[in-house]
Structure formats: structure tokens, C-alpha cells
Amino acid sequence: MSERDNRHVLVTGGCGFIGCNLADRLADRGDRVLVLDNLARAGVRENAQWLKSRHGDRITIAVADIRDPIPVIDAVREARAVLHLAAQVAVTDSVSDPAADFEINARGTLNVLEAVRLHNSAAPVIFASTNKVYGRLIEDSEIALRGRRYTPVSDLLSGGISESAPLDFYSPYGCSKGTADQYVHDYSRVFGLQTAVMRMSCIYGPRQFGTEDQGWIAHFLLSAIRGNPLTIYGDGKQVRDALHVSDAVNAWLAALDHIALARGRVFNLGGGPANAVSLLELIDRITELTGRTVTYRFADWRPGDQPWYVTDTQALTAALGWTPQVSLAEGLRSLHTWLDSRFGSQDRSEALA
After folding, report:
1. pTM over the 0.85 mark
2. Which of 44, 87, 210, 270 could lock 201 by a disulfide, CB 3.0 to 4.6 Å apart?
């Protein structure tokens, strides 16, 4: 390995759920990793300790905020590549504080891009975008109820949503992430940077500290483990395609390792039709998996909620040969095992105290 190849891979937000799984896999395969994270979210300090305990000096953690351009420049300057996942991730928080949401997601991403453009323009940049850039996608008249899930009326959507779907930012979060998404894409066209965008849908798996606002599969499972009631926003028949984090990491590393094929591209990244599930169907699966009845109540739909979103992954498969490997059933078992080992014994001990 040459001296240049031995430079660190920068992972912004690398103590978050997807970021720490990426950092872990990079270190496992021998890469040096610099994680930049402000350690503000629940669970990220634990993920930081987990990374350091597994990899020691191979992973360096810099506590900084992407809204501050100076530490971003310092981290980017000597990086071999930049995997940009640092973000404000909750639609609800974006509605309550749109300015902070914009500063983190839009301005923070621009800080990263400018640091690369001005100080390390050869470094590839891969960006964590979201399916929320497509907005609500389809009207109520364009969906039908079949069993406990919505499905599109048109057979043209049977394979999912492709990258050709029109953008329609909805909610401050959708606007800020959509702005960042387009900046990342445009910095490849205008400035020649090696960028790729991953528009992700419902990634789940170990190291995810799910909450009501973000990481809904982990939140649902954790609620079952703890015996807590759920609040379902909408009617529970809305559909998402779920992708296990190990498959998401495979896609990110495929884009990084084959950046000549991925540069300038935007990819939808999700589990596809085979891993699509409605909220109510997931509750049924969780009940079967855990043997525990999940109680829930309904509340109003939230801004930008999509009644149906399933990813068409054909572009990613054609470009990089990537396909999901982990079924929803297998992935749920792996997440349940981790959540139960991390929280189940703790909750049982508290119940006995």
C-alpha cells in the first residue's frame, strides 16, 4: 500500500448508526479511519467506545461539528476519501427548528464540499441522502389498500421508485437534505469532484438506537422488548422497503472502491420490493419474533409522510453489481438479538430492582 493509499478515510457522523458500521468495516479491512462527530445524539458515545475498543489506533475520533468549517478542513485535508453522513435526521426536529436543520444539513454539507474542492479535490465524496427528496410521491387516488398495506395502482411502480422520479422536497428536512443532495451532485458536474449520492430508505440493524423520530424498525422492536406502547403516525398501512445495515455498508464500499464507475451518479439505496413491509405488518412480525404483544395507538400523519415508498435498486446493481443479501426476516433477527442483549437484560434488572 502506498503512502497516499494509507491516508485515512474520513467518516463524518461516524459515531452514528450507519457511520459506525461503515467505520467498523473499513477498519476491519485495514483502512485507517478518522471519524468526525459532535457526539450530540443518544447512543453515539457508546458507539464511539465500541469502535475504539474494537480497533484502537486504527480509528481516530475527532469531536467537532460540520457547521464549523475549520475542523472540517483539517479533517478533509489529508483524507483519502470522505463518507459524509453527519446530519440532522428527524423530520419532527426540522419542523420545530428549521434554521438549525438547514445549518447542519445544507450548510454543513457545503462546508464539506468546499473543504474538498479547495484542499483535497482528488478525494471521493459519498453522501448520505434520503428518499424524502422525492416528497410524498403519489396521491391518495394513486394507491390501493390490499390487506394491511398500501400498493400503487399503476403497475409501472411494481419495481419501486427509480432515480428518474421527480424531486419534490417536502418538510424542512426534505428541503435541507435535498439541497445538500443537489450540491453534492452539482459539485461533480461543475467542479469535477468525484462525488456519489446515496438516497437511502429505511436502513436498520445493530448499533441503531431507534427513536420515535428516526430508526423506526429499531424503535418498534425496542418498544416490544421493553413493553412500551407505540404511537403510529398515520394508519400504519404505509409501506417502506427495509435494508439491513450490512447491505448498506456493502453498497457504500462498492461505490468507494469503484468511484470511477459511481462518480457523478445518484443512486437509490434500499431493500427493494422483496423487503417491503407496512408498519402494521412489521408489528405482526415483531409479535411473532419476540412472542410479545405490541400495543399501539394512532396519531395524525406527519408532514411529508409517504404512504408508499419502495426502492428500485436496478441502477446500483447495473453500475456496481450490488444487490441486497439479507432478508427482512434474517435482518430482524439480527437486530432483535443486538437490542435484547443491549437493553433487554438492563430492563429486566430494573424490573427486579
Report:
1. yes
2. 270
